[in-house]
């Protein structure tokens, strides 16, 4: 892929963005992160982890060759999520999508392989992100190479966060 590639704004095919429903009562709130009866078997999480990202800090951009990520942005901060479709066989090849999410609008987001992604904490608090990928990190027993192509430090990368 040429570093000179330019992306146009739009929505990326196969990326799923869905608000998380909050069930409120006098104790607070609850949100279902995923349900097996609502997910395609191909994106069903096989592991789960959470990460905390400090205000002003970004994670990514990177992409996966085979792994689908199943993110939930829940707060207590807000995030700007960047997505770039570099799948040559995709109807949205060359599209960049930006999504704002977090405490103000909790979201679930499915990011398929070949879609470069990054997120930045744009709030003032530490932010928590849940991820339930459909592949084990480093494979069974952590014995395989990690399925990740990192673009964070690539000189001239077209995957720029603002």
From TrEMBL:
GO BP field: dTDP-rhamnose biosynthetic process; polysaccharide biosynthetic process
**Which GO MF term does the entry hold, naming one?**
dTDP-4-dehydrorhamnose 3,5-epimerase activity
GO CC list = cytosol
Under the heading Pfam families, the entry gives: dTDP_sugar_isom
* Membrane-spanning segments: none
EC number of this enzyme: 5.1.3.13
Enzymatic reactions: dTDP-4-dehydro-6-deoxy-alpha-D-glucose = dTDP-4-dehydro-beta-L-rhamnose
Cited InterPro entries: RmlC-like, RmlC-like_jellyroll, RmlC_Cupin_sf
Marked site, Participates in a stacking interaction with the thymidine ring of dTDP-4-oxo-6-deoxyglucose, at 137
Q: What does this protein do?
A: Catalyzes the epimerization of the C3' and C5'positions of dTDP-6-deoxy-D-xylo-4-hexulose, forming dTDP-6-deoxy-L-lyxo-4-hexulose.
Q: What is this protein called?
A: dTDP-4-dehydrorhamnose 3,5-epimerase
Q: Which organism is it from?
A: Geotalea uraniireducens (strain Rf4) (Geobacter uraniireducens)
Organism placement in taxonomy? Bacteria, Pseudomonadati, Thermodesulfobacteriota, Desulfuromonadia, Geobacterales
């Amino acid at each position: 892929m040429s570093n000179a590639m330019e992306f146009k704004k739009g929505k990326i095919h196969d990326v799923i963005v869905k608000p998380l429903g909050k069930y409120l009562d006098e104790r607070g709130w609850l949100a279902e992160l995923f349900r097996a009866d609502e997910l395609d078997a191909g994106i069903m999480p096989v592991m789960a982890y959470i990460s905390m990202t400090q205000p002003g800090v970004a994670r990514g951009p990177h992409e996966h060759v085979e792994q689908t990520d199943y993110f939930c942005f829940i707060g207590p901060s807000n995030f700007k999520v960047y997505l770039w479709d570099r799948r040559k066989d995709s109807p949205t090849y060359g599209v960049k999508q930006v999504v704002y999410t977090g405490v103000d609008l909790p979201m679930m987001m499915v990011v398929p392989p070949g879609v470069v992604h990054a997120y930045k904490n744009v709030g003032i608090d530490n932010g928590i992100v849940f991820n339930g990928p459909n592949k084990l990190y480093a494979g069974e027993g952590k014995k395989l190479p990690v399925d990740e192509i990192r673009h964070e430090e690539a000189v001239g990368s077209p995957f720029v966060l603002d």
